[in-house]
Amino acid sequence: MKKPFIVSLIMGLLMVSSSFLVRVMTPSIDTANKQNRVNLETLIPYKFDGWQIDLSVMSPIVTPEQNKTINKIYSQTLSRTYINKQGERVMLSVAYGSDQRTDLQVHRPEICYMVAGYEIGSMITTFVDTTIGQIPVMRLVAKQGARNEPITYWIRMGDSLTSSWFEQKAATLSYMLVGKVPDGLLFRVSTISNNEQNSYRVQQAFLTSLLQAVRSEDRHWLVGRLSPS
User: Would you state the pLDDT for residue 229?
Assistant: First the structure.
């Protein structure tokens, strides 16, 4: 049996299993309701370690259709562009959803970019080393015309960090098997540059500084129960 077929079969079974569980199980515990509500606006600092919000950058325009979809899936969203003293810019996007059942799960950036007409280049799963621990991430490049956008992201499902589609589905399934509905969060940073390796260097520096600046008691909203390095 060929490997691609086995992978496709496993992914298909995960999708069917998740859909089945949504229909037959009534979750007894909603992890999002066990905690105080997150406030992304105050959780993410406006200024930290040489980075500050770039007020010259306009917020992206969202169509009514897009806004309807966003409001259905996410409880809160946050989009900012930061700049440092060297003039390097990083775009930050955070989206939080309190209910991560199959039809309400956070959307993976590569899908959203493709729908917007971008070509998706290389995609790799890797780790970002920070002062609070190793973070599993997905890295990819989205291209549209002359625009080249290297991206780093991860998705938190409950207490677990996931980078791949498979990990995201497996994490959801593990919660639903014990009657829980996890909350979830998409954390994405990107830059506009043709120098991809330098972009990832800048993004790692940004992530390390940002996570260090977030209050220790609030970091679980972004990275779950991350084990220290």
Answer: 52
User: Highest mean pLDDT: which of 1-15, 72-86, 140-154?
Assistant: 140-154
Q: Is 219 exposed, middle or buried (0-12, 13-18, 19+ CB in 10 A)?
A: middle
Mean pLDDT along residues 178-188: 85
The distance in angstroms from the start CA to the end CA of the chain is 39
**Tokens 């991860």 -> residue:** 154
Please check the confidence at residue 18 and state whether its pLDDT lies above 60.
no
Q: Which residues of 48-69 are buried (b: 16+ CB within 10 A; e: fewer)?
A: beebeeeeeeeeeeeeeeeeee
How far is 105 from 120, CA to CA, in rounded Å? 21
Amino acid at 226: L
Residue type at position 82? Y
Phi-psi region of 117 (alpha: psi -120 to 50; beta: other; left: phi over 0): left
Q: Which residues of 183-200 are buried (b: 16+ CB within 10 A; e: fewer)?
A: bbbbbbbbbebeebeebb
Query: What residue type is assigned to position 37 of the chain?
Result: R
Chain-centre distance for alpha carbon 45: 18
Percent of the chain with pLDDT over 90: 50
